[in-house]
Amino acid sequence: MTDASLNGQTQQGEAEFRDFFALLKPRVMSLVVFTALVGLLAAPVGVHPMIAFASILFIAVGAGASGALNMWWDADIDRIMRRTKGRPIPAGKVDGQDALHIGLGLSGLSVVMLALAANLLAAFLLAFTIFFYAVIYSMWLKRSTPQNIVIGGAAGAFPPVIGWVVATGTMSFEPWLMFALIFIWTPPHFWALALFMRSDYDDAGVPMLTVTHGRRTTRNNILGYTVLLAILAVGTAFTAIGGPIYLAVAVVLNALFLKGAVEIWRRDEAMSEADNFAVEKRFFRLSLLYLFLHFGAILAEATLAPFGLGGW
Amino acid sequence: MAIRVEHELHKRRFGRNLGVGLVLAALIAIIFGLTIVKVTSGPVANAQGEIINR
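Output (structure tokens, whole complex):
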């Protein structure tokens, strides 16, 4: 007789490797990898490919670790929200304590390894990012203020700065432009999601702007932040990380993004309900493409620069 | 109940152990690669701490 047949409970709770991997929020990690890589390659200093590879990997592991800590802390509300109830802890696949241990273990590993692979400043920034996401955002802001994702967005905005610091070892102005791009992009991205997820955040008691100030105010704020974002994104074209390719991409994408924000602003709940939030969903999908293509354009400018094609 | 040689639970455990094993092997490879890069590039110090440029 096998031990499995003796202990049915163990059998049910036995997680697979992919369940542990899901704790690391792979989709968020892919965005972190991409933006950190752009930050690293846009820097004016070359990095050995092995050091670059290892650094990006450990930045991604750090991001994954903060995702695991977030899932451990938020397991109670993840059980309530439709969007998150399939996550490994609420789905009963991974034990909450295991997620905590994985999160803490990978946090330590990623920070130490980044310090060894790159430099102490990059490691410090990674440690601060993990702390910011797990403690400042998840444990404090998320359940206490409608500004949760505005301030918390900083956690997702750090990777290109870390990538830049991996290459240069110092701070400068340009990576903070990339930081600002993600930081200002985050609120309209998440508020569009909050609009079409409807009662999810109300049910979980998360004070999203839609819950505390109403959906009309959320629509107004989406437009406000999108205007700010457009000014910043197009303005970035005229800095050291910009160029004609970036300018063309920014003009087109920001025109589309502004158009979407204006449409959301002009609609009311009845109109959104009538087409099942089609405009809000389209805006959310566009926001993903928006960020990807802006960073893709920065990467293109940096990659073409050695051939005399990128930049101004 | 028939006794099965390999229970579904063991398949899951094997998959998990294999995954952890591969991750650890990859970590060793990365640390080895980093070590090689670090010791073969840039200035090195001799036993007295003097920088030797190669």
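The two ends of chain A are 73 Å apart (CA to CA).
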